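User: For my dataset I need records formatted as: sequence, then C-alpha cells, nothing else. Please produce one.
Assistant:
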Amino acid sequence: METGLTLRFQVTIDHKVELGNWTKCEGLSVEWEVFEYREGGLNEYSHRLPGRRKYQNIKLTRPVDKDSSSVAAWISGTEGPAAGRTAQIKVLDTEGTTVASWSVVGVFPARWTGPSLDVDGRAVAFETLELAHSGFTAG
C-alpha cells in the first residue's frame, strides 16, 4: 500500500470547530535566528547563539467540498488575532487512523483564497487557508 499517496490532514479549532480534511499542509516549521558573537582576544572562531523562534504560516489546500462552508463560517466569526485559538492538525491514513498530530497555539486565519471560477475551465476548484500561529507541539 502506498501510504504517502493516501494521507489527509484533518483540522479542528478549539476541539469543536471542524474545518474538515485537507489534501496539502505546508509551513509546519520553526526556525531560530542565529547570532554570532566574536569574543575579544579569541579570534579563531565566533560563538553562535540561538535567538528568537520564528514560525511560518501553515498553508492548507484542498478541492472545494462540503466542508468549505465550515471554513467560511469560522472565518466570518473569528474575533481577530487576539482570539488565541488552538488548532489540532492530524495526519490520517486511509482507515482514518491518526499517523501524527500537532497542537498549534495562538491560531488565527491570516488568509483565505477561494477558487477561480471559470465555467469554461476544466480544472478542479481549490481553496487555500493560511493560519498564523505562535507555536506548536507534537502529539
